[in-house]
Recover the amino acids of this structure.
């Protein structure tokens, strides 16, 4: 990209010219959140994709989010800034292995978190996000056993909250598993007035310690509505941008990871996306997300079920 290209005005021009919409997850860098037409959590991104009138959706997030948008909108062109923006949680659940796992539990209803590949969604009865998981699990008849995947932390949290009979796949997100309990406890001692808030992908000891547990949008809402003025935030650091924007008078402390030298809670996949890549993707309409039609139709059913229940 020549230095003289003004990325912000070029992105705005291309968006208008191509009737494109930019949708960004809360974990994107601030610059991308600032130019996005819509910023949200995984559920909101799927809901927004399902109802947009744009011809092109540029999904600034990780690949499964673009794939979900394409599954919902086969006639639209779905672009992502970088095809390498994967997800360690989705990768922890290969479809072939999940297929074999599922075979062992023929009487179970298969509930999967949206952080999966289209192939795993195609093996599922219903998809959930961290925003709607409790409600969806409670809507399943009480005597129906559940197979949940791929996140073991979210799965165990849901099991304790709903009291349901659940078999859980052993997957996890490397970002949410890295937080240090010792360092968080020390931080809390230094800041006794701070509330610890955590995403349910975090490990159990941290969830036990947390004052509030929720999806990215639930955490944001909590910080806005709470009377408290200080928060230790145990999730990916990108969400702090919206928290600070909404409550500039409050203090937000990123929860420290175990590796003291790292000092950050970035998802390196989410952070692969840059403004320059957004510009290039819009300009060249590449990389494009494509999903085989037979697979798409199979993956669509459990996503539509989720959206019906969540609407
Ligand atoms: P949300 O569903 O809360 O947006 O989380 C998505 C995600 O990737 C968490 O790591
Ligand atoms: Fe996947 Fe974890 Fe990154 Fe979320 S934070 S996109 S679960 S790797």
């Amino acid at each position: 990209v020549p230095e003289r290209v003004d990325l912000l005005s070029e992105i705005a021009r291309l968006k208008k010219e191509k009737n494109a919409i930019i949708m960004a997850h809360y974990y994107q860098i601030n610059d991308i959140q600032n130019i996005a037409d819509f910023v949200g959590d995984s559920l909101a991104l799927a809901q927004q994709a399902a109802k947009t009138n744009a011809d092109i959706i540029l999904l600034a997030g990780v690949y499964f989010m673009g794939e979900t948008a394409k599954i919902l909108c086969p006639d639209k062109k779905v672009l992502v800034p970088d095809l390498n923006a994967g997800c360690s949680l989705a990768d922890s659940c290969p479809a072939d292995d999940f297929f074999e796992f599922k075979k062992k539990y023929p009487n179970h209803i298969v509930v999967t978190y949206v952080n999966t590949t289209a192939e795993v969604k195609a093996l599922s009865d219903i998809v959930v996000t961290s925003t709607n998981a409790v409600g969806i699990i409670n809507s399943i008849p009480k005597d129906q056993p559940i197979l949940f995947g791929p996140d073991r932390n979210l799965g165990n949290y849901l099991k304790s909250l709903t009291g349901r009979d659940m078999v859980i796949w052993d997957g996890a997100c490397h970002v949410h598993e890295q937080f240090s309990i010792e360092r968080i406890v020390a931080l809390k001692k230094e800041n006794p007035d701070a509330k610890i808030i955590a995403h349910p992908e975090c490990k159990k000891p941290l969830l036990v310690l947390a004052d509030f547990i929720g999806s990215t949008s639930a955490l944001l809402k909590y910080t806005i509505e709470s009377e408290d003025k200080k928060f230790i935030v145990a999730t990916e650091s990108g969400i702090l941008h919206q928290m600070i924007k909404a409550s500039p008078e409050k203090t937000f402390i990123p929860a420290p990871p175990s590796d003291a030298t790292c000092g950050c809670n970035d998802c390196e996949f989410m952070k692969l996306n840059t403004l320059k890549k957004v510009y290039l993707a819009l300009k060249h309409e590449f990389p494009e997300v494509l999903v085989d039609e037979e697979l798409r139709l199979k993956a669509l059913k459990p996503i539509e079920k989720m959206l019906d229940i969540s609407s």
Notes: The CA atoms of residues 8 and 35 lie 8 Å apart. The chain has three domains: 7-85+270-292, 89-173+298-310, 181-254. DSSP finds 15 helices and twelve strands in the chain.
